[in-house]
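Problem: given the chain below (543 residues), write out its structure.
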Amino acid sequence: MQQHVKPPREFDAIEMEVYSNRFMSITDEMGLSLVRSSFSTNIKERKDCSVGLFDGKGRLIVQASHIPVHLGSLQGGVAAVLENFEPEDIRPGDAFICNDPYLAGGSHTPDISILTPVFHDGRLCFFAANLGHHSDVGGGVPGSCDPSQTSIFAEGLRIPVLKIAREGVLDEQIVKLISTNSRDPLERVLDLKVQIATNEIGRRKLVALADQFGIGTVEKAVDDLIAYSESRLRKRIKDLPEGVYTGEAFIDGDGVGHEPCRIQVAIKVEEDGITFDFTGTDVQARGAVNIPKTALDATCYYTIKALLDPTLPPNEGMALPVTIVAEEGTLVRPKFPAAVGIRSTSCQRVVRAIFQAFADVLPKEKVFASSADMNATMIFFGPHKMREGNFVYLETVGGGAGASLTHDGMNGIQVHITNTSNLPAEALEIEYPLMVRRYALADGSGGEGHTVGGMGIIREVVAMTDGIRANASSEGLRTPADGVFGGGAGEVAHLKFGTVDGKTTEYDISITNILMNRGDSLFLQTPGGGGFGRASRPEASGE
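Solution.
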């Protein structure tokens, strides 16, 4: 009997480019509004937020170019809405809120998602979604993120999927509940309302798009975009040699002690699919460095896009050829109620392990040495400088990028799954009773090689009043960024606390809730990136 082979799907390249850019322009406008309108410095200055669009089935249409790890929380939040609410209970004008890593697809409690259903002609067709990292949602320490916390219950308010607005009416009681559990309630109220308004922009734009071209045409375009991304990625995978490629990376400790934690990955390439198997990774940590499912998924998708096809349209199609295997009870799939507040740093080490594995299969020009691969954090809490109440200020500090075959690593940047800015010294000093004493590149901290690793950042912040509380953490205090093909390792991180009388203490683990009085300082030097290849040596002159 003759076999009939299904012909490959054909795509209208021009039409897809038009729709891809239309969807991206909607998320760009949403993102700009979210940043410009927010009250907290963490969103308005550091841009610690993300936006995305999903179809009525919960499939990703597009994520704006913000923070890759946030994709997991947005996807998880939309899925949680569809799982927890019957279709007839989702109505025009509703808005949903969630953050919980175990109940609502979140990745840690400070990341609060707002998800708004979009209806056209009475039918649920899309979701507009955004996420903001709120500087404090309660818990054991200011900032709600600390490696030494040992339970999700110590990491602040857990929000399952709830309706924060019903048919256009904001539920002020839920807003009050959330703000009451924060050390800076005014910021929570204002930022949450901005998040809800941001999705309204996306809703109006999507409805206008459907009105202009017809909802059937727009939904077909979504199907085509997803199918195109899937097809294109499968072709990239098919170009790779089949086999199993392994990599590993280590976290300095489990958040409580100094024993390194191992992340192991085996990447299986076969035909047009790829599997990330994390069997062999250490058991879940005592502290808050565990990785929830959605954060691990987003990290794996990031590596595929970054290494195989950086211009791949970021939609559901990039996930379809990928299988992720992770055993429950391990660092990369913790059991409730494990703490997960510092999951970003661990995700960065997952990237390191995956990049290491791909070094065996990719052409040399596409290989990178290890980068700083961490999410160094400084958090300050104390009486507000400009208004009543207390402030919570957090910042994540970039490091050095790994070198490649033809380029030195970039200096002082956020890498991989994070993409925030450091707050300018002037803005920090105007807003808070703090002073930036030093803000510079750590000269010589990049690994040596044919091309040199990027330099880390030095950031020293001084308290300008008594009674400031501070937390600080950085991965890479003991484990440096490795070079590749004979390149040198980058310099490790340094974390110090100095008192006004000149006494300095250096830490090789995080600092939790330390008291700072006027003149005391917190010093952080982030790691440098690894070098690529052996450094060329000058030939003897013969003279």
